[in-house]
Design a protein that fits this description.
Layout lengths: L10 H4 L43 H11 L12 E10 L18 E10 L14 E9 L2 E8 L12 H8 L15 H9 L4 H7 L14 E2 L4 E4 L5 E10 L8 H10 L3 H11 L5 E9 L1 H6 L19 E11 L3 H6 L12 E3 L3 H18 L80 H8 L3 H17 L3 H14 L1 H11 L37 E5 L6 H13 L3 E6 L5 E2 L5 E2 L3 E2 L10 E4 L3 H8 L2 H12 L4 E3 L4 H7 L7 E3 L6 H8 L12
Parallel strand pairs: 11-12, 11-16, 12-15, 16-17, 17-18
Antiparallel strand pairs: 1-2, 1-9, 2-3, 3-4, 5-7, 6-7, 6-10, 7-8, 8-9, 13-14
Helix pairs in contact: 3-4, 4-13, 5-11, 12-14, 13-14, 15-19, 16-18, 17-18
This protein binds CIS-heme D hydroxychlorin gamma-spirolactone 17R, 18S.
């Protein structure tokens, strides 16, 4: 009986026991890659019951061949990312400034795809690394794809693209040992940046809370470079792009970030997925700083230097459009991995400046796609394909899927149909801005790029005291991980040029003497005014909407209070999740049960923006003996969180060693819920005297 199925497979494995089954399971018939229907998906073809597999087994080879080649190289930087689809809507038409298609009429909608990322870590690294976040937006316009490949920090480490491979080698895991993963806190990174004072301004941002965002939804994005807008008459202006989160800005604290990475390494991607999936669609306003040559000439710094910003207080950001993310990806590989961004993807109305970093990027992004995606035809992949007609005489190449019909495959030709194939449009087609450039060819850093410290100082002074403390802590944490003391000394010498107080505080935390200040090409300016727009805490949300409350419940929790808290927070647009001693249903005092979202050992308070402690007295005594419950409370306290305090949580508080302060709000009765949710809009109780 050679066709008898072996009894070791279950009916489900065999595709039996299904009412549709007539050799077909669940509607679709499984086939090989070439469409041959499979008769058995569980067993390879063998000689006898226990014999060797036959080379003839084409189905096995078809499947294994494909599997063996599933991986493509991950991105050399920004390998870990997460994406979503959305729409850009024009709020303020600006045809006078640019002929870029998305901005020609108010209400105009343009399909978009966004990929957020960390920079240094590999694809499987944790989301809460201290790192810059990529903020890359592809806009599928009717005049081609426009990619704005930006970051959540408006400046960069280096001024010239030729230094990029050095920077990336230095920050990635060290080549002789293979660590650390997704961390700048190691010798090679600090060695490099301490020798490259141009990175100082970026370091201030990277050591600030900008580098540990609470969520992609709560961070700003920046085009970084100066670009050009060009209108229909060919007139051009300079422009810098800004994405402003309508959710308000928010970051976590460092000790919390470390713990989130353990509790939920996918914290950021899960957050974005959950928000979109629940209909709480994240939005950013797209704003521009537009300026002319005269402004550029008068401005304190060179607008072509990507280590400098133009403060919003000097040149306000004008909002012109709104981006809404409304659809999660269907397939991470097809979309998140295969999306190919490039600064060179511009459309009529957008042009480049001479920023030497941007010029270099225009080469690198196209080049890297061939390595990753393996074919010059990557633009034909659905996520990369323009939504407008594509017509040219580019031919063939690996994986060509365009039906390139007709006889003429060159331009000009007289054979391809009536219109003789596509021709350039000298009137409406892309025209590069005509620029007068002259001068000797030289490898030189312009003198106008020489000030490396003044804006770093301005950034530091524009932070609140709390944020300044975080910057001091971050420099100290990272430099304490550096093994070679000469690197720490060199970095402290650089920091003295930023601000004496910053350098002294970092030195104190490292228990090191302050070295002489480093030699600086130009003296640090002390006259730059503070820029409040640079602070996260000064630009937080107006409410707790979009944030998450974690409610600790046990058997016997007061139903009235639990319900009131849930309805107050959900009414404010927040998400409420329940944490209990175990994942099974909890019986409430006052009747009914509640199904928790987390068991306490898998639901630490670092996953929430605020917490409510609503155990029964017995539940609190029971939890008091559990380390995970003690951490739940003591971490919430240490991370400056607002805590709603039920009437019976005393035993747990005592076990956690926490004395309630003004950041603890009474939740003794259902009536207290509204005050608690209103207070939670401030997100943290920074006055708490604790350093996380
Ligand atoms: Fe990138 N960068 N970069 N970068 N970058 C890449 O392109 C590069 C820079 C940014 O989600 C790579 O497709 C050079 C600044 C983002 O797919 C690569 C220089 C900014 C992403 C590359 C820079 C960025 C990348 C790696 C110095 C903010 C992820 C894989 C001149 C304005 C895009 C890839 C995504 C990715 C090169 C500096 C943002 C190698 C040479 C400045 C958001 O081409």
């Amino acid at each position: 009986m050679p066709n008898k199925r072996p009894s070791t497979t279950t009916p489900d494995q065999r595709g039996e026991g299904d009412e549709l089954h007539q050799g077909v399971k669940r509607g679709e018939r499984m086939t090989t890659a070439t469409g041959t229907p499979l008769g058995d998906g569980q067993n390879s073809l063998k000689v006898g019951d226990r014999g060797p597999t036959l080379l003839e087994d084409f189905a096995f080879r078809d499947k294994m061949f494909h599997f063996d080649h599933e991986r493509i190289p991950e991105r050399v930087v920004h390998a870990r990312g997460y994406s979503a689809h959305g729409t850009l809507e024009c709020l303020d038409a600006i045809p006078d400034l640019t002929r870029a298609a998305p901005f020609q009429s108010r209400g105009k909608k343009t399909e978009a795809f966004v990929r957020f990322s960390t920079v240094a870590g590999n694809m499987g690294s944790p989301d809460l690394a201290r790192d810059v976040r990529g903020f890359a937006v592809k806009m599928y316009t009717e005049e081609g794809n426009w990619d704005l490949v930006g970051n959540n920090i408006p400046v960069f480490f280096i001024q010239d693209a030729t230094k990029f491979p050095d920077l990336v080698h230095a920050v990635k895991e060290e080549q002789d040992r293979g660590w650390p993963q997704a961390a700048s806190a190691h010798d090679t990174f600090w060695d490099f940046v301490s020798l490259m004072p141009e990175s100082t301004h970026m370091l201030l941002w990277a050591m600030s809370d900008r580098a540990i965002p609470r969520s992609f939804r709560f961070m700003e994005g920046f085009g970084v470079h100066t670009y050009r807008f060009v209108n229909a008459d060919g007139d051009d202006t300079f422009v810098k792009f800004h994405w402003k989160p309508r959710q308000g800005m928010q970051s976590v604290v460092w000790n919390e970030a470390l713990k989130i990475n353990g509790a939920d390494p996918d914290f950021h991607r899960r957050d974005l997925y959950a928000a979109i999936d629940s209909g709480d669609l994240p939005q950013w306003d797209l704003g521009v700083q537009v300026f002319d040559e005269a402004f550029a000439d008068e401005f304190d710094f060179d607008v072509l230097d990507a280590t400098k910003i133009i403060p919003e207080e000097v040149l306000p950001v004008r909002v012109i459009a709104r981006l809404t993310l409304d659809r999660v990806v269907d397939n991470m590989f097809a979309e998140n991995e295969q999306v190919a961004f490039g600064t060179h993807n511009v459309i009529p109305g957008i042009d480049f400046s001479n920023d030497p970093l941007l010029q270099g990027r225009n080469f690198s992004y196209l080049d890297t796609q061939l390595k990753r995606l393996g074919s010059t035809n990557f633009t034909q992949l659905p996520v990369n394909a323009p939504r407008c007609p594509v017509r040219h005489f580019q031919r063939d190449g690996h994986m060509q899927t365009d039906p390139q019909i007709g006889r003429g495959n060159y331009e000009p030709n007289s054979l391809t149909g009536d219109d003789r194939g596509p021709r350039a449009d000298v009137v409406q087609g892309y025209q590069s801005v005509m620029r007068q450039e002259s001068g000797p060819t030289r490898r030189l850093r312009a003198a106008s790029f020489a000030d490396h410290y003044s804006q770093a100082r301005q950034f530091f002074l524009s932070q609140t005291e709390v944020e300044q403390g975080h910057i001091v802590d971050a420099f100290s944490f990272e430099l304490a991980k550096v093994e070679d003391p000469r690197i720490r000394t060199r970095m402290l010498a650089n920091l003295r040029n930023v601000h004496e107080d910053l350098a002294q505080r970092v030195a104190d935390k490292l228990a090191m003497p302050l070295p002489e200040a480093a030699e600086a090409a130009v003296p640090t300016r002390t006259d730059l005014p503070e820029s409040p727009a640079l602070s996260i805490l000064l630009n937080g949300p107006e409410s707790f909407a979009g944030r998450k409350l974690g409610v600790l419940v046990t058997n016997g929790s007061d139903k009235a209070v639990v319900k009131a808290v849930a309805s107050a927070f959900e009414g404010a647009g927040a998400v409420v999740e329940y944490v209990a001693p175990a994942i099974g249903p909890v019986k409430l005092r006052g009747g009914g049960t509640l199904t928790p979202d987390h068991a306490i050992d898998g639901g630490p308070s670092v996953l929430f923006d605020a917490v409510a402690l609503l155990p029964s007295a017995d539940g609190a005594s029971d939890l008091a003996g559990r380390a995970s419950a003690q951490d739940f409370v003591s971490d919430a306290f240490a991370h400056h969180k607002l805590v709603g305090l039920g009437a019976d949580a005393g035993a747990l508080l005592a076990a956690a060693g926490v004395e309630p302060d003004e950041g603890f709000l009474d939740l003794a009765s259902a009536d207290d819920a509204d005050v608690f949710v209103t207070r939670c809009a401030s997100l943290r109780f920074w006055d708490r005297d604790v350093r996380a």
